[in-house]
Amino acid sequence: MKIKLRRIEVFMAVIENGSFSAAAHALDVAQSAVSITIKELEKELGTQLFIRANRKVELTESGRLLKERAAPVMSLLMNVKDELKDLENLSIGQLRIAAPAMVTQFALSQVLPKFMALYPKIHIKVYQAGALEIEALVKKEALDLGLTVYKGIEPQPLAIYPTGYHQRDLLERHSTALGIPLNIVLESENPALILSAVRSGLAITTLPLAALENESGIVPLKLPHQKGDSLKG
What percentage of the chain reaches a pLDDT higher than 90? Predict the structure, then answer.
């Protein structure tokens, strides 16, 4: 048996307000509409729900049983309505954000306090990850917001020492913090081979300045300096 929710809503309104007329006022409908709805519900259930006397109503045994079963259901539905409304208005909920370390440190640290002040009941989770991982998480819908700094920027071809060298380790650390993948086209322990790729315009590199003393055709650039780093390229 499928009972229309509106009929249960009217039934509960009559109980809560004590009469058909008061229920009609609370629901903003005509009293006749309330009477018709209750009659339809009684017909549907095959039993009388109210004893009507002196403009007041009393529940029958069937009415009391229906009230007992319907009250928690209606309460649950009202809570769901309120929660959906809160969610639509960003009053409650969860926001999952992922960004590289540098974005988290410098951008989110300025934006999030303002957002939290506007929406104090939103639970925020912030993850640190590289750009490629963030992109994958967004595609899997494991995030609500993914921030990167390299989107649309093509990483430059790089000639560099193998893993374990100081310049390589620092560059990888900067790359991870920014969420920018390294585009390594040449990996060698031989600085002369690395410089030949740079002279040919095939790659850029990071080397100690001492390695560039006699290289008039190569222009050294200082990388952004952070405390504890001594990397120059």
Answer: 23
DSSP letter string over the chain? ----HHHHHHHHHHHHHSSHHHHHHHHTS-HHHHHHHHHHHHHHHTS--EEEETTEEEE-HHHHHHHHHHHHHHHHHHHHHHHHHHHHTTSSEEEEEEE-HHHIIIIIHHHHHHHHHH-TTEEEEEEE--HHHHHHHHHTT--SEE--S-TT-PPPEEEEPPBTBHHHHHHHHHHHHHT---EEEEE-S-HHHHHHHHHTTS-EE---GGGGTT-TT----PPPP-TT-----
Q: Domain 5-74 class?
A: mainly alpha
pLDDT in tens, 11-53: 999 999 988 999 999 999 999 999 999 999 999 999 999 998 7
Question: Domain ranges in the chain?
Answer: 5-74, 91-146, 158-212
Tell me: pLDDT of 158 over 70: yes
For the record, the structure tokens of 140 come out as 């899997």
The DSSP string of 121-173 is: TEEEEEEE--HHHHHHHHHTT--SEE--S-TT-PPPEEEEPPBTBHHHHHHHH
Q: Which CATH class is domain 91-146?
A: alpha beta
Q: Are 38 and 11 in contact (CB under 8 A)?
A: yes
Nearest to 38 by CA among 53, 28, 54, 24: 24
Give the pLDDT confidence score for residue 232 in this predicted structure.
38
pTM above 0.85, yes or no: no
